[in-house]
TrEMBL record:
Domain of life: Bacteria
Source organism phylogeny: Bacteria, Pseudomonadati, Pseudomonadota, Gammaproteobacteria, Methylococcales
Keywords: Acyltransferase, Repeat, Transferase
UniProt entry tagged with the keyword Acyltransferase: yes
Listed Gene3D superfamilies: Hexapeptide repeat proteins
Protein name: Acetyltransferase
Amino acid sequence: MKVTHRAEIFHHGRNKSQIVLGDFVVLDGTLEVYEHGKMTIGDYSYVGRARIYCADSVFIGEHCLISDNVCVMDSDLHPLSATNRAVIAERWALGEFPDVYTDTPNAPVTLENHCWIGFGSAILKGVRVGEGAVVGSNSVVTKDVPPWTIVAGNPARIIREIPENER
């Protein structure tokens, strides 16, 4: 594993096994794993200057490329209610770490092997990006991406399948 001088890991849990980094992972971005989160990054995967939030479960397979300015989130991190958000903001200002679980939707994110997530993209809670899929730059992925497809846009839509000879 290679961790660059810019990489950051924020682990808010109590168990070291909540973060599993495979062999030959290159980390140049930020990982934030909350109290009940579990993050796994497979062998030979690269995380550029991205930020990955994990309140529930984030699984990144082997040989994945995650570009700069990417955001992966398995949680909304804040409740929808403005009143509840105000309480969180006030408590945070007083030094209390925010609760990312009560009234906050969380759902696992999975990036299967050989994915490429393009610059500036967002992968949101509950999404599975299939094996070999490519997410175009500045895309917002809100739904599952089939294996061996290219998606792009906001929201991300299938552009085309990747034929066997391009895999």
